[in-house]
Specification:
The chain is of the alpha/beta class. The protein folds into 3 domains: 166 residues, Immunoglobulin-like, CATH 2.60.40.10; 231 residues, Rossmann fold (3-Layer(aba) Sandwich); 26 residues, no CATH class. It contains 11 helices and 21 strands. The strands form 6 sheets. It has a 6-stranded mixed beta sheet, with helices on both faces. β19, α8 and β20 form a beta-alpha-beta unit.
Length: 443
């Protein structure tokens, strides 16, 4: 059985068999061709035996292995590499069927390649996970055919492995260097003009041509009998909390990812940017109760702690309890902080139910409510209505889009800042708002 299992007849073999059967039928009408058909049948049998011999004489004809990353980045293209060593002394064609994790729901995955004699080849393909968790790979199957292509020999490698999928650390790396070099505006993030001076005093230094005359320290100037100026620095070590609503409203999917995963990816990036700007970064998630809490700190291990915590944030499909959030924030977060609240409001009535608690949080903290545009409605709004039903759908879509803008105005009325963004622009818009707040000294 071990010898038979790797043996597979190819489509070419069956096509030739069908052709021979047709020729045998025709030979009844043309008897002189019967001998030629028998010769063709004998040739097919000979080539099949020869094909079997050259493929199965080598013990390890083709050896393959799969190289996986340590972890996948959620919502991004992740590379998977296959290394194939061809120990045959002739060129072969291979069909690779990798048993990729069931989460991708790909039933027809295969890669066809030609391998040169006695060579090593590397093949890369990419996978885009859209949910966090464990992804289990099965076996790696390689089907080898020779130049005849009548039979195939299967090589199976027990490369079963598990890869965890974390929030988008690829997106994190993308903005990491930019945050250090203050070049975030190159990626569509607007440059914020800094207004005035911060109040965090650094030192008194000698006046240099070009220094702002308004910063002259006249007392120090009188003592030293030369111009001295006050030097200020950006205010640092300010707490920045990413608050993630993990109720059922965040389960809505866009482009494969849920709103919750978009919020998690953005929270990871903004935490890293805040730490690079010498602020403290923390997170918490809530629905019926407040969980997954990471207190805002500025230690070296903070990003690893935030990443591991975000990996375990999952929706529980409950209605989010904003009163519990307000109570926990008031009790445990005593220092004035920047609160980035990732949630979603579809109607003005939905906002009004939670508005008293948002106003309560905004009394002691700088609150930014981040919610999402329904990009699926754009097509309904922009296309021309030709039937009564299409006109009705367009009016309803415009009503929902208009209500989102009313929510922004309602929050502004009570001094609560907001971001209305599409899911794919969430990270950029959040960083923009953070840089604006820092530049204006609002915190």
């Amino acid at each position: 059985m071990k010898r038979i299992k790797p043996f597979y007849l190819q489509n070419r073999f069956f096509y030739v068999c069908i052709a021979i059967m047709v020729l045998f039928v025709l030979s009844f009408l043309f008897p002189r061709g019967f001998a030629i058909v028998k010769l063709i049948l004998l040739l097919l049998a000979t080539l099949t035996v020869l094909d079997t011999i050259i493929l199965f004489t080598a013990k390890n004809g083709v050896v393959g292995r799969r190289i996986l990353p340590e972890k996948f980045s959620n919502g991004d293209e992740n590379p998977v590499n296959l290394i194939l060593n061809n120990y045959y002394t002739f060129n072969v064609n291979v069909t690779i069927i990798d048993e990729i994790p069931e989460q991708f729901q790909v039933r027809d995955f295969n890669i066809k390649r030609k391998l040169d004699a006695s060579s090593t080849s590397q093949i890369e393909y990419r996978l885009r996970p859209v949910e966090r968790g464990e992804y289990h790979f099965g076996k790696l199957n390689v089907y080898v055919t020779s130049v005849f292509g009548l039979i195939a020999r299967r090589f199976t490698y027990d490369d079963e492995a598990m890869v965890p999928t974390y929030p988008s650390f690829i997106q994190l790396r993308k903005y990491d260097l930019l945050a250090i070099s203050n070049n975030l505006h190159q990626y569509g993030i607007k440059k914020i003009r800094k207004i005035g001076h911060t109040m965090e005093f650094e030192q008194i230094k000698d006046y240099v041509l070009g220094d702002d005359l308004r910063t002259i320290n006249w007392k120090a100037t009188a003592k030293r009998n030369q111009l001295m100026v006050n030097q200020f620095q950006d205010e640092k070590s300010q707490p920045v909390y990413s608050i993630i609503d993990k109720g059922r409203v965040m389960k809505m999917p866009f482009d494969g990812l849920t709103l919750l995963d978009y919020a998690i990816n953005a929270a990871l990036v903004i935490s890293n940017v805040a730490l690079k700007k010498q602020d403290k970064a923390g997170i918490l998630a809530f629905s019926k109760k407040v969980e997954n809490i990471v207190v805002a700190e500025k230690r070296t291990s903070q990003m690893n702690l935030i990443l591991e915590t975000l990996y375990n944030v999952n929706t529980d499909f409950f209605e989010s309890d904003y009163s519990r959030l307000y109570a926990d924030v008031k009790r445990h977060i005593t220092h004035r902080s920047l609160m980035l609240l990732y949630t979603n409001f579809e109607t003005l009535d939905g906002l009004h139910r939670q508005l008293p608690y948002l106003k309560g949080i905004a009394k002691n903290h700088l609150l930014v409510v981040i919610f999402f545009k329904n990009t699926e409605l754009n097509q309904l709004i922009t296309e021309k209505a030709e039937t009564v039903q299409q006109a009705y759908d367009k009016v309803i879509a415009e009503k929902f889009a208009f209500e989102k803008r009313l929510i922004v105005n309602e929050l502004q009325k009570y001094g609560i800042q907001s971001i209305l963004t599409s899911p794919q622009d969430l990270t950029i818009d959040t960083i923009n708002k953070y840089l604006e707040i820092k530049a204006r000294g609002l915190l």
